[in-house]
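## Example record

The block below lists the input lines for one assembly entry, exactly as stored, with component labels intact.
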Amino acid sequence: MGPEVERELVRKCKAGDSRFYEPLVRAYEKPGLRLALGMLGNVEDARDALQGAFVKAFEAMARFDLRRPFGPWFFQILRNQCRDQLRSRKARFQLEVLDERLELRPADPETGPERRRERARARELLWEGLARIGEEHREILVLKELQGFRYGEIASILQIPEGTVASRLYHARRALREALQELGAELP
Amino acid sequence: MLDRVSHEELMRYLDGESTPDERDRVERALETSTELRRELTVFKSMKDDLQTLKLGAGDGNGRYSVWHAVSRQLSRPLAWVLIVVGSLAWAVHGIYVYLTAPIFLWEKLATSAIVIGILILFATVVWERYRASLTDPYRDIQR
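Predicted structure tokens for the full assembly:
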């Protein structure tokens, strides 16, 4: 979806017409689910958070500044929703067997069963590592590595200066490295 | 600080966000520092592994969408407003018709007593359910 089309849809939604919200929801639900899943660890809670964030975003649309892009604003709402859920009794970072829902990069040539098992184990360790590090560390790693956002976008979602992003990433990566070492993962 | 390269510079280099000058400085430092090279290798390996944790298309099957649930939630408040406004209008009209109806006073009083009794019972049940929900330990469990 181009930025002009997106702006027009947001303009219509600001006027209260929810029919124009569907294309926005469909455009952002996949990256949104990835972010929520990375922060909450299980699909059920991630879907709840995503749904809640879309409803909140529509309700707050009147206050949305049309000069800004919709994406980072929405992800900010979603991130807050995930944090609220983690703090409430309703959810906690709860790992589930995600492997059937995950896929390797399409170009991955490793097809042998032994290698596949190793990769599956490595991914499992990574999820366990992510579960062990704090919420703040986890969210920045999810935004960077699972979502692939640039520093500027992360700064806007987390509402922190761009210079702080690199520093937070360093501490998050160190925390993950320590968690993986505790879990017995082999690092280079 | 790792051999004159800050942690932030190392992160920007790893994530491809360095300026050309910064990149040159980090690369020079990498040539001379084993510790820095080792740290970068570990971070690079974790980065590559994390990027394999990508979701498949649309939660694995590409069919799931939250739109219908979102749409239901967005349209519900409007539906409630319409129901309440319509019900109030009918209630006011009904009361007016009832009060001005050419029937005996005792009929009006008896009917009023029945209606008020039903309303009190309904309000009591709603209030009790509300009070119970505040302390229900299972209220967050999805049925």
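The beta strands of chain A are 102-103. The longest helix of chain A spans residues 162-182.
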